[in-house]
Design goal:
Helices cover 60% and strands 11% of the residues. By secondary structure, it is mainly α.
């Protein structure tokens, strides 16, 4: 993924330290997104809770809200990088 992002920046001759930093941020958020998806898959949309005071039940998995925020941040970074969203994930030869 990061290679695809770098290739798009190279094509525009836009490899700068700030863009490189944004790509590193993007990859960090992408890693977090994958962990959140794994948590949702493993624990489900709702999780059981026990507050220790005798109350038990189910509540929303907090990973869902975090996933939405993380995905939004990923899109924001792509916009800052002026990345062609249709080209993300394509073969490097096509860039």
């Amino acid at each position: 993924m990061d290679l695809c992002l770098y290739k798009q920046l190279e094509k525009r001759k836009a490899i700068t330290p700030i863009y490189k930093d944004l790509i590193e941020d993007y990859m960090t958020y992408w890693s977090v997104k994958e962990k959140l998806k794994k948590d949702i898959k493993e624990r489900g949309v709702y999780i059981k809770y026990n507050n220790g005071g005798g109350q038990t039940g189910e509540t929303d998995n907090p990973s869902i809200d975090k996933l939405l925020k993380t995905s939004s941040k990923l899109k924001e970074i792509l916009l800052q990088l002026e990345i062609d969203l249709d080209a993300v994930g394509e073969d490097d030869d096509e860039l």
